[in-house]
Design a protein that fits this description.
Blueprint: H1 3-15, H2 18-25, H3 29-43, E1 48-49, E2 56-57, H4 59-86, E3 91-96, H5 98-101, H6 105-115, E4 120-125, H7 128-137, E5 142-145, E6 154-169, E7 179-180, H8 182-185, E8 189-192, H9 233-239, E9 247-250, H10 254-262, E10 268-271, E11 282-287, E12 293-301, H11 309-323
Parallel strand pairs: 3-4, 3-5, 7-11, 8-9
Antiparallel strand pairs: 1-2, 5-12, 6-10, 6-11, 6-12
Helix pairs in contact: 1-2, 1-3, 1-4, 2-3, 6-11
Length: about 325
Amino acid sequence: MDLKQLNAFIAVADLRSFSAAATKTGLSQPSLSRLLKQLETDMGVVLIDRYHRPLHLTEAGAFFYDKISTILTEIDTVTSMTQRLSAPSSVLNIGFVPSVLYGLLPEIIATLKQSNPDIEVNLKDISSYQQMDALKSGEIDIGFGRFAHQDAWIQQILLRHERYVVALPKAHPLAHVREQRLIDLANNRLILYHQTHLPVLTTTASTLTADTGSSTVNANSEQPPLNEPITEPLLHLFAQYGISPFMTTTVSDLQVALGLVAAGEGITLVPASLQTVRTEQISYQRLVHENVTSPIFLHTLKDFVHPKIPDLLVAIYHVYEQRGITYRQQKFVSEP
């Protein structure tokens, strides 16, 4: 059993086609078939049912695929990390969720470049969970996200909590009320935009998220049954106060949600940094609930910290100090 055989099996299992797998791997179909047959002979197990189209995994093949794909992913991660450790790139690749870009990220990058004139920075719009794979593959070196993660390869620090505000159409009766309560908003259509839901019901309001990776629009107005956990972040937020919105609509991302608010189709809650968007059509007002916040996390690998990340943290905390933002200074464990 060797890596070529395993990669051949994974390609066929993923694509359920020898021709498609041959194209993906750059091998000829006879070579691919031979590698797979050698693997099955070495194991004494049939992994692929070749008599169906598309190809099917046998029960043993499905079990083997589930286990070996995780191992191969780890091998790829270790290989990538080893290469980066031996020859660190001078470029700092930063992933971010869109809601962070509307906040202090541009100012932080400007501060970083001012103190490091020779630094090269690449920014990539990528959701919090996608950042985990991007860190492992080397696509990014660090990521700004809104979700806490449990991953053996990743370490994270909490930068700060950002308060939510309510976004209302300018013509809304509550548009000029400076201090809003969730109970007073319950009779409105609440526009939901999160693409990732909370993992468990026990997550507190102070760790609600604002990840805004995009996908296709999926509108609906159904509430989950009362006996099921409420994991959609905004609905969960209302539920913490024993409130259920009158009606909801789910859209693809935060920008679409704000577009619907501007059109008078409902209200939504967003991190305070978004309150500069569409201000001619939207009124943003504070919530009286001080613990209703959205966290901002910084993620990187546990075993490899890009040499420019300490400089990035210095820039972040400098901006926080200039803006009078409360924070607790932290650093990643493998920093010098």
